[in-house]
Design goal:
The protein is α/β, with parallel strands linked by helices. The protein contains 7 helices and 15 strands.
Length: 238
């Protein structure tokens, strides 16, 4: 799921923008949600720092101590990959806004058509980066690969275990393996591990421990030597 947040000081525009976004998600069957819509810049920064946020939509000319440009700078200091979209009625800010690696700049008044164009283009941009995001089904469900700890086979289903939740689809390892980056390695007949997320191995118990210690998976005898070879070559756990 893609998480969107919005900061706009006009509550009428804020509510309208949030509703327009949700309508676009439904129209295109996007697995996305506006997780925060606020007129308070401090609330926005606190939320972005505490949660995994994919897209931030900012009004530039906020009636607050901080401008949208200043918020963008704080966000960029903590997260280089979050998509930033600016909205404003002041066109003179456009060139300044792009210094923050802005994905798009939407002038007010905001229309459904203009917003829809931006969101669909954003999804196209995400899909063009398979090393970062994985599309796991035909419902436009995408997952940031950096959040996936492992993929587990559970009967006819595959379970993508991420830091925040599990995603279940009806598929097989054979179907998904070609879509996976090289850092995903088969470690068991029922598990594929993201070696970028491994923090430790327990060779006696044949367990993989991930960065979030709440997550672990098994190592199968058949796959152990291959896993160790990949880890040694990949430089993981060093």
């Amino acid at each position: 799921m893609l998480n969107f947040v919005i900061c706009e000081d006009n509550l009428n525009i804020l509510n309208k923008l949030s509703n327009l976004m949700e309508n676009i998600f439904v129209k295109y069957n996007y697995d996305a949600k506006v997780t925060l819509a606020t007129d308070n810049p401090d609330n926005l920064i606190d939320y972005v720092c505490a949660n995994n946020i994919d897209v931030v939509i900012l009004d530039i000319n906020l009636k607050a101590k901080k401008t949208g440009l200043e918020l963008a700078q704080e966000i960029r200091e903590n997260n280089k990959s979050t998509y930033i979209i600016f909205i404003t009625g002041h066109l003179e800010y456009a060139m300044i806004a792009y210094k923050f690696k802005t994905f798009d700049y939407i002038s007010k008044p905001i229309t459904q058509e203009r917003l829809e164009e931006t969101i669909t283009r954003l999804y196209d941009d995400i899909y063009s980066k398979p090393k970062k995001y994985l599309k796991i089904d035909n419902k436009n469900t995408i997952i940031d690969e950096n959040e996936i700890n492992y993929i587990k086979r559970d009967g006819m289903k595959l379970v993508f275990c991420t830091d925040s939740r599990d995603y279940e689809i009806y598929s097989s390892f054979n179907k998904v393996k070609d879509t996976l980056p090289e850092n995903f390695v088969r470690c068991h007949k029922s598990y594929i591990a993201n070696i970028n997320k491994i923090s430790n191995l327990e060779p006696v118990e044949n367990k993989i421990i991930f960065n979030n210690s709440n997550f672990s998976c098994d190592i199968g005898p058949k796959y152990k030597s291959g896993l160790m070879e990949v880890l040694n070559n990949y430089g993981s756990l060093e």
